[in-house]
User: What shape does this take?
Amino acid sequence: MASPTTGLEVFTDREYKYGFVTDIETDEVPAGLDEDVIRVISAKKNEPQFMLDWRLRAYRYWQKLEKAEAEPKWANVHYPAIDYDGIVYYSAPKKRPTSLEDVDPELLRTFEKLGVPLEERMLLAGVAVDAVFDSVSVATTFKAKLSEAGVIFCSFSDAVQNHPELIQKYLGSVVPYTDNFFAALNAAVFSDGSFCYVPKGVRCPMELSTYFRINAMNTGQFERTLIVADEGSYVSYLEGCTAPMRDTNQLHAAVVELVALDHAQIKYSTVQNWYAGDKEGRGGIFNFVTKRGKCQGDSSKISWTQVETGSAITWKYPSVILQGDNSVGEFYSVALTTNHQQADTGTKMTHIGKNTKSTIVSKGISGVFGQNTYRGLVRIQKGATGARNYSQCDSLLLGDRCGAHTLPYVEVMNDSSQVEHEASTSRISDDQLFYCRQRGISAEDAVSMIVNGFCKEVFRELPMEFAVEAAKLLGVSLEGSVG
Amino acid sequence: MLEIKGLHVSVAGKEILRGIDLQIGQGEVHAVMGPNGSGKSTLAQVLAGHPAYEVTAGQVLYQGRDLLGLPAEERAREGIFLAFQYPVEIPGVSVAYFLKAGLNATRKHRGLEELDAMEFLDVLRAKLKFLEIDQAMLQRSLNEGFSGGEKKRHEVLQMAVLEPSLAILDETDSGLDIDSLRVVATAVDHLRAPDRSTIIVTHYQRILNYITPDFVHVLMGGQIVRSGGSELAHELEARGYDWVRGEAAAAGSEVKP
Ligand SMILES: Nc1ncnc2c1ncn2[C@@H]1O[C@H](COP(=O)(O)OP(=O)(O)OP(=O)(O)O)[C@@H](O)[C@H]1O
Ligand SMILES: [Mg+2]
Assistant: This one.
C-alpha cells in the first residue's frame, strides 16, 4: 500500500540564481600582500598622506597578528587555512565611468540580472544605489536629490577625495584597525565602499542602498562603509550581497562603522546571499565582517537588521556601543544555514550611558548539515545606571544532522540594570505540516510559510520591499534543506 | 461520493481500524459516534492523508477514484476537508495569509484565477459575519492563543472558505459553550448542500439537533458495530454504549472496549 510521503523529501536541489560571472577587463595588482601593494592601492586611489599612513599602520599591526597566528579561532566555525598570499587585493574594472552612460553595459546587465534597479525603475522605487563592483564603486545615482537635502552619499574613494576632513574625523573611530585580525586586514587593503553623511536635523529623503558583488576570481573583497548621522538626523540604509559560484573559497572581510550623534537614528538592513558553496561544501564565500555602531550622542538610536542566507562561513556580530545617555541599540537577525554552511553570528551591546536600552532578537534556522551559532554579549558598564536589555534567541531545526548553539554572555557591573534573556529551540512538527497540507498547501510552501512565520519579528523590521525580497530569498534558500 | 471497503489502519505498529466499511452518498450527512479511543479521529486523519497512519488493507474510493494513493494536499485540493479535533498552532503565520494560501492553491488546482488580497477579503467578510468572528482574528497567528471555541469556529470558517465536497468534522462541537455551539452548528447546517457530503464525528446528540444526520454509525474497537438513522443518536444519548457493545457481542462480532 502506498503510504503518502510527508513531502519533506521532495525538495529539489537548491540552485544559486546569481552564480554567473561577468566578463569585463579588470585592472588588478598581483596576488599577495606587502607594503608596496598597499602603496600601489593608495596611489591608484590618489589618496592623501593620512590615508596611506593609516593603511600602513594597520598593515604592520596585521602582520604582527598574522606572524603570531592570531587569526581568531574562537568562533564555532571550521575551515581550511586561508592563504593570504594567494589573494588579489585590488581589482577594478578598467574603464572608469564618470556618469551612468559611461558604465560598461556588461556591468549594467550584471546589475540587472542581480535585480539592482539602477535606472528609471529606481526613481520610482525611490532608492539611491551606490553599486560596488569588486573594488570600485561604479555608479552613484540620485546624488542630486540627496545633495539638495545636504546628504552626502558616495563611494568611499570619492569621500576621501572630496570630504577628507569627515573621513579623517570618523574613520576607525568605531572599529579601530586594532579591533581584530580581519578589521586590521581590511584597514590595510580596503579598496572601496560607501560613505554617507546626514547633516543636522535632516531626515534622509530616501532609503540608501548598496549592492556588493564579488566577481573576479581570487579577489578578496574588502569594502568599508562609514555612515555618520549628525544631530537629530535619520537615515535608513539597505545592503544586499551576492557573489558568483566558484569551486574555491573567497574571502570577504568588510568593515562597517556607524556613528549616531545626539538624537540621530540609523537603521541598517542587510540581506546577505553570498554564494554558499555546493551541496558537498565546496566553494562559497568566507564572510568575516566587522560591523559596529556607536550611539555617541544622547537619545540616539542604531538598529541592525540582518537576513543572512548565504556564505559558506559567516562570522559577524553587528554591535552597538551605547555611549550617549538614553540611547537605544537594536539587533534583529535571521540566519539560515543549510547544506554545509556555518554561521557564528550575534551581537554585542555595550551599555555605557545612563538609561540605555538594547533589544536583541535572533532567529537561527538550520537544515541538512548546517551549523548555526548565536554568540552575544550584553555588557552593562558601571556608569550605565538604569540600563535595560531584552534578548530573545530562537532556533529552528529542519533536520537531525544540523545544529543550533546559543551562547549568550552577560556582564553586569551596575546593579540598577535589568537584563532579560529568553531562548527556545524547536522543530517543524509533522502535525503543523499536515495541517497546512490538509488545506491544499504543498509541503514546500508549508515549510517556507512556517519558517517565514518563525522569522516574522525580524522581517517586520525590514523596509517593505526588502521584507518581500527576504521572504522570497528564504523560500529559495530553503529548497533542498529539509530532509 | 465516498466508499470505504475493509479498511485496516495501524499507527505506530498498533492496529486501530480493523475493517471499516462505509458508503457515503452525495449530499448526505453521516454522524460517527463511539467511545474515546475507538478510532474516530484515526478514520478522519486517514481519509485526509496524514502520513503517520499506515493503511494495511482495504480501499477507499472518492468520487470513483482511488483516494489512498493521493498525497494530503491533493486530497485537499480535490475537495476533502478535515476540521481538526485539535487544530495545531503555527506562530507568526496569520490566519488571513494561511487561508488565502490554501484557497489559492485549491483554486489554482481547479483552473480558477487566484484571488488577490482585496478579492479574498470580499469572499471572507460575509463568512466572518455568519460565524460571528471578529475581523481582528485574521491578523492573529494561526490558532496561537485561541480559546477552544475560537479554534473550532476558525475551523468552520476555513470550511466555509474552501467549500469542500467532503467535509469531515472531528468533534467540532466539543469545548463550545451554548451560544458558540448554536453559531457553529447553524453554520455547518447552512453549509449543507446537494453536492457536499459531511461526516460529523461527535460524542453528543446536541449538535445533531441543528443538523439532522441521514445516518448515524457507532464505531467501537476499530469497527462500525451499528448503523441507523438519526434516532440512533438519541438512543445512544439515553442508553450509553454498553447496550450496543452487548448486542454486538451477541451478534458475534469481536468488539474490544
Ligand atoms: N499518532 C498516534 N500514535 C500512537 N497512537 C495513536 C496515534 N493516533 C491514535 N492513536 C491511538 O489510536 C487509538 C484511537 O485513537 P483516536 O484518536 O482515533 O480515537 P477517537 O475515537 O478519536 O477518540 P476520542 O473520542 O477520545 O477523540 C487510541 O488508542 C490512540 O491512543
Ligand atoms: Mg478523536
Summary: The CA atoms of residues 223 and 254 of chain A lie 5 Å apart. The radius of gyration of chain A is 22 Å. Confidence is low (pLDDT under 50) at residues 1-14, 119-126 of chain A.
